[in-house]
């Protein structure tokens, strides 16, 4: 503890008693070490600079800013709209495609069915207006559900079939398109716009030159579904195209015999026997190769 000097004014008995009081001297010592209540500011201490104030906007900027904000909103809205899925026609179109199909049953989304015998190419498409198929070089049996608002159309290389609901068989070759109707009524037209209506129990044929002919059916289902191929007064080149649907080896014709006439009912399980029967009927020779069978003049 610090010793405090006693001056002359304190050389009294009272003064001696005060300065000899240890508690009082301790309190005075603590007050001396305490920080002063008031201090002078350091002359070198810098006064904080005032914060810079924002310059007032030009009146034109007040008008441009809302426009710029609106343009930005339009751009962002356009980007979001384009990214979102749209309910366009493409989103409700249903399509199917088959290549080189053989003996296949196809059930379509709207309930119709197609039993394919053989087809080089078969396409199907349905949208909000119609149901449409395309059959190229093949044969198929169509069972079409009724829908008055969406006709069912089948296009081939030589014809167009239009129905609302029916069952029919369609065969398309390089030389003709043949239609057989087993239920309902079918509109059958060529590419020139000539059309006929074919009822159940009848068939029709459109040749490559556009001629339409009709005939009566004598079976309740297409013969190919029972394993038979019926050829009625057809040229040999047409008959061979039909036989090639069922042959593992390609049937070819030598020169000078393509226009010979062929009629008969042949088993689709034994094309080789059919070739032999045709050769005997026209006195032709048959030559067998690894990948083909050739009919020739003797």
Give structural notes.
21% of the residues lie in helices and 39% in strands. It is elongated and about 60 Å long. Strands 1, 2, 3, 4, 5, 6, 7, 8, 9, 10 and 11 form an eleven-stranded mixed beta sheet that branches. Among the domains are: 92-220, Sandwich (Jelly Rolls), CATH 2.60.120; 227-298, Phage tail protein beta-alpha-beta fold. It has 298 residues and is α+β, with helices and mostly antiparallel strands. It has five helices and 16 strands. The model is unreliable at 1-12, 34-48, 51-56 and 58-92 (pLDDT under 50). Strand 6 and strand 7 form a beta hairpin.
On the 0-100 scale, what is the average pLDDT?
77
C-alpha end-to-end distance: 148 Å
Number of DSSP-assigned strands: 16
CATH architecture of the domain at 92-220: Sandwich
Shape call: elongated
Quaternary structure annotation: single chain
Low-confidence blocks of residues: 1-12, 34-48, 51-56, 58-92
The number of helical segments is: 5
Strand content: 35-45%
Structural class: alpha+beta
For this structure, the CATH topology of the domain at 92-220 is: Jelly Rolls
Task: Provide the descriptors you would attach to this structure in a database record.
alpha+beta, 39% strand, 5 helices, Phage tail protein beta-alpha-beta fold, 298 residues, disordered N terminus, Jelly Rolls, 3-stranded mixed β-sheet, 11-stranded mixed β-sheet
Brief account:
With 298 residues, the chain is an alpha+beta fold. Helices cover 21% and strands 39% of the residues.
